[in-house]
Specification:
By secondary structure, the chain is mainly α. The chain has a single domain, classed as Ribosomal protein S17 (Diphtheria Toxin Repressor, domain 2). It has 3 helices and no strands.
Length: 62
């Protein structure tokens, strides 16, 4: 069982998916690059957690 995702990261990720859904996909590495390109000031760890959370949300939606 994995770690729980903090509420602050979940809310930011959901906001990004609402406004930039076309940029994200199932690929974790691509999602990390998209988050960097958007220009959020996140730590490396937070960026990775957010990219993984977005990847799982997209995979579960299909």
């Amino acid at each position: 069982m994995g770690k729980a995702v903090p509420k602050s990261i979940k809310s930011r990720a959901e906001y990004l998916l609402e406004n930039h859904k076309e940029k994200f996909g199932k690929d974790f590495e691509k999602n990390k690059e998209v988050i960097n390109g958007i220009g959020l000031s996140l730590s490396k760890n937070d960026r990775n957690i957010m990219a993984g959370y977005i990847s799982r949300m997209i995979k579960d939606a299909n």
